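Chain A, query sequence.
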Amino acid sequence: MVGVDADPELIEAAREDHPGPQWLVADLAELDLPACGVPDAFDAAVVAGNVLAFVAPGTEPEVLRRIAAHLVPGGFVVVGFGTDRGYPLEAFDADVASAGFTLEHRFATWDLRPWKDGGDFAVSVLRRPDQAGGASN
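Chain A, predicted structure.
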C-alpha cells in the first residue's frame, strides 16, 4: 500500500498514526510512482476524502490519468466526494471518460447505498480498460 498527499504535515501524521505503508509527498497531477521507488502497478486505488475537490482547479483530468497510469490493465479506482464541493458530477464524468476509465458503479455513500440523481455525495467505481489504450471486451 502506498499513500500520497501533497501536504508534508499530513504525510507525517499518516506515518505516525499508521506505520508500515509507504507514504509519499507528491502532487497527484504529477504522480510518478516508479520515480519514487514504487515500480509495480496496483490492482486498485482509493481516492477518498474529497481529494478531487481539493486538487488544483483544472488538474482533475490529469490526476485521473496519473492514477490510471499506476493501475494494472483491468484495475479499478474508487472515488468519493461531495457533489457540492465545486467539482460537478457532470465534469467528473467527462474527466473519467477522458482519462480512459469506464464508470462501472455509482453509489450515494461509502456503505454502497443506491445512487439517486441529485445526491450530495457520490462514490464511483471506475474501471481501467483490460488493455492499455483499448476498451475492455
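The chain has a mean pLDDT of 93. DSSP finds four helices and six strands in the chain.
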